[in-house]
Write a structure and sequence with these properties.
The complex is a heterodimer. By secondary structure, chain A is of the alpha+beta class. Chain A is 32% helix and 29% strand. In chain A, strands 2-1-3 form a three-stranded antiparallel β-sheet, covered by helices on one side. Chain B has one domain: Class I glutamine amidotransferase (GATase) domain (Rossmann fold, 3-Layer(aba) Sandwich). Chain B contains five helices and eleven strands. The two termini of chain B are 14 Å apart. Classes of the chains: A alpha+beta, B alpha/beta. The interface between A and B is medium-sized, with 11 and 19 residues.
Chain lengths: 76, 233
């Protein structure tokens, strides 16, 4: 099974990387840059796992629920 | 008195911790992260460094090291556990302490001496200090900004579990004395049982006058005194 896990900082958490990227966009000639948020994407290839197990991995290992949200996209 | 310093691939403050603990009279062992037991110690130290290269998140992979199961077991039995810097991050990732450490407010890796205000002495790690005492201890981290949800923060405050906060030389907290953007200047917290303590600053680097400060000694003096009392009882 192939899957992607997208991990993003929670909206309520200040994302200093995102702020730096937004500011760089403004310096680069996009004064209208309102916000940028930096997360990560993890591609997985797993044999013999259920979607529930992948959710568990995404929640317990790939993201930290205190500060991040994840989205699991399973490729059928 | 027996202490264990856990070594993960990428730990780099393990030698400093070992040296200081030995100086304080602990029979100190290094314990490799692949060991499955860390039983029989009075104190377990998770040292600073970059375990697993900080891959994924700081401390995220170390948390799944074989030895961590045993560390969690020992912590639940009441053994003293102290996580310094990366060790603090690992304690948060493993759920032994609440909250998380995120990227510093200004994105920089900060390596400098800061001041810490002692907030609570009713615990094994600061029993020899005075509330309000200002300590000179260095920090060295890129991801040290403590964060937690409002409910967690409220219980930490209400239960006196914030043990040290960043402050200025006069002991005043606030934004100007906050190196990394940590919530309410929090530099170190303990668990509800008060036997697990995590902090971003490095007391083991402030135990020798040649390194610029000996203020870190009070943490180890406190631990020694607490364990001494427990053994005598």
């Amino acid at each position: 099974m192939k899957a992607k896990v997208i991990v993003m900082p929670k909206r309520s958490i200040l994302d200093p990387q995102g702020v730096a990227v937004r500011d760089a966009m403004r310096h680069h000639g996009l004064p209208g840059a309102q916000s940028a948020r930096v997360g990560k994407m993890i591609e997985l290839e797993v044999d013999g796992a259920t979607e529930a197990q992948l959710h568990e991995i995404a929640r317990d290992l790939l993201s930290n629920p205190v500060v991040e949200d994840y989205e699991l996209v399973v490729e059928k | 008195m027996k202490a264990a310093v856990i070594r993960f691939p990428g730990s780099n403050c393990d030698q400093d911790c070992h040296l200081v603990l030995k100086e304080f009279g602990f029979a100190t062992d290094f314990v490799w992260h692949k060991e499955d037991s860390v039983a029989g110690y009075d104190l377990i130290v998770l040292p600073g460094g970059f375990s697993y290269g900080d891959y994924l998140r700081c401390g995220a992979i170390a948390r799944f090291s074989p030895v961590m199961k045993s560390v969690i077991e020992q912590a639940k039995r009441g053994v003293l556990v102290m996580g310094i810097c990366n060790g603090f991050q690992i304690l948060c990732e493993s759920g032994l302490l609440p909250g998380a450490l995120i990227r510093n407010r200004d994105l920089h890796f900060i390596c400098e001496h800061v001041r810490l205000r002692v907030e609570n002495t009713g615990n094994p790690f600061l029993s020899a200090a005075k509330v309000g005492q200002v300590l000179n201890v260095p920090i060295a981290h890129g991801e040290g900004s403590y964060t937690a949800d409002a409910a967690t923060l409220a219980s930490l405050n209400a239960e006196g579990r914030v043990l040290v906060r960043y402050c200025d030389v006069n002991g005043k907290t606030g934004d100007a004395a906050n190196p990394n953007g940590a919530l309410e200047n929090i530099a170190g917290i303990c668990n509800a049982g008060r036997n697990v303590f995590g902090l971003m600053p490095h007391p083991e680097r402030a135990c020798d006058a040649r390194l610029g400060s000996t203020d870190g000694r009070v943490f180890f003096q406190s631990i020694m005194a607490t364990l001494g009392k427990a053994q005598a009882a």
